[in-house]
Amino acid sequence: MTDRGQAQDRHVPVLRDRILDLLEPALGTPGAVHVDATLGMGGHAEGVLERFPEATVVGIDRDREALTLAGGRLERFGERFVPVHAVYDEIGAVLDGLGIAAVQGVLFDLGVSSLQLDETDRGFAYRVDAPLDMRMDQSSGPTAADVLNPYSAADLARVRRDYGEERYARRIAAEVLREREREPFTTSGRLVELLRRAIPMASQRQSGHPAKRTFQALRIEVNDELGSWSRAIEAAITRLAVGGRIAVLSYHSLEDRITKRALTAGARSTAPPGLPVELPEHAPYLRLLTRGAEEPSEAEVIANPRAASARLRVAERTRDTTAGTTERPRKGHTR
Question: How far is residue 62's CA from residue 290's CA, in Å, rounded to a whole number?
Answer without folding.
Answer: 28
